[in-house]
Amino acid sequence: MTANQKAAWVFGGIVVFLAVASAIGALLARRAKSERARATVENLKARVNAWWVMIIVLAIAFTLGKTATLILFAFISFFALREFITLTPTRPSDYLPLLLAFFVLLPGQYLLIGYDQYGTFAIFIPVYGFLLLPAAATLAADTHEFLERNAKIQWATMITIYCISYAPALLLLQIPGYEGSSSLLLFYLLLVVQLSDVMQYVFGKLFGKTKLAPVVSPSKTVEGLVGGALTTTLIGGALWWITPFTWLQALAISFVIVVMGVLGGLTLSAMKRGLGAKDWGVMIEGHGGMLDRMDSVSFAAPVFFHITRYFFT
Amino acid sequence: MRPSSVVLVGLVKLLVGAFPRWVGCAPEPTQRIYFANHTSHIDTMAIWAALPIRMRYRTHPVAARDYWGKGIRRYFATKALRAVLIDRTRTDPNANPLAPLIEVLQRGESLIIFPEGTRGSSAIPAAFKSGLFHLAAQFANVQLVPVYLENLHRSLPKGAVLPIPMTCTVRFGAPISLAPQEPKEVFLERARAEVIKLAGGAQD
After folding, report:
1. Residue in chain A nearest B153 by alpha carbon
2. Least CA distance to B20: which residue of chain A?
3. What's this model's pTM, rounded to 2 decimal places?
4. I want to staple A288 with a disulfide (CB 3.0 to 4.6 A). Which of A143, A292, B60, B200 is the partner?
5. CATH fit for domain B3-199, picks 1.10.10.10, 3.30.565.10, 3.40.1130.10, 3.40.30.10
6. Torsion sign (Cα): A299, A301, A304, A310
7. Is the pLDDT of residue B31 over 70?
């Protein structure tokens, strides 16, 4: 099978999966009697509808190629950073570092990936951004909570720009025997991460009893986590034929992706709750904000990239 | 829709979101005066972009002639936003500065005004100027809708040129009206309190 045929099979599979989900949503809507059940079904339908939109946008970007995919992820980073900064209390004296984050670091990072500069993109934000953002902040001559203010902006740029940009950076990898298929690798990452979230939600709704972390992430349950993680790892292994991995390697790697995704979800959930919010934003109906959808990706993408780069190139 | 308006609304939504929250009234094309807190040059565009399209063209922002009256700003203010320019400096002491606003209200259309008269730098609005009171007294049937703009004072601090992208919500409160024989100061303070109420605890 060529890469295009594989992509067509996987996209086709997702369309069938979503169609089944939509049908279940419509069926449940008819049977829902109580107020609470109706609210759950409404949220489920909104989530599935948002998935349709997301998968269509992704399919269009993939068809158009590398540049379109990079632009799509640059916008994802932009909206995620916008949400992060909105929830983070900043002061007027933070103006310059914030401006640099949005209009220099963000486009810079994606341009470096676009021009295949692995050596620079991997250190651009952790080294140059890390040092120069607080240096720029000193110009405002405001020492009030200087460390805290700059740490917040540094976290924002690391998560929303640097970590998320590792997903489209997969397109740079030259894997022997896998030439021309790197967009499938990006697709594999997104599929495993998002499927893990979906499966945890489904298993949690069906069998969830024991709260996993009631303070940090009230909706997560132990049953949801175990059921979702196991199912997703198995599906990730079963999809080895779209990756450069053997089925055993794919099983192990998808397990790592799932674990990192869970850690990302928990960490960013703790962060947003610490900032006094339940959701990062309101952009994606039923899901919350962009960062509510990308929290697991931001943790899984860098690790997946480096594992693949270290062992397979 | 005019292309300049489409570009402007798109840009405003990309940079500051301008998500509408209809807390105290519905997005209906009733004749209204929207009055809001004022902290940045994007305020006018944010409220305008938050309105449904069918209401945008019958709702005119009020902008200061001394700032918005020249060059490219004038083009955007009068063509894309269809703003009414008001003379803050009162070059002609005998003219009524509210005359262009009264004309809009007489046509049955709506206004967006910033009763503070100038941009503040905090989340809570400063004291209101008397224009809102005079309009309320003259047009008893027009709904007075308080509006609170969240976060814009952080996005574009006074003196800054480029806005920092931020998700701003535009909260529309319950309409108020001028009570019979209500003194000017009491009414203006009550109107200001309605805007502050929508801020929901924001302090600085």
Report:
1. A92
2. A282
3. 0.90
4. A292
5. 3.40.1130.10
6. negative
7. yes
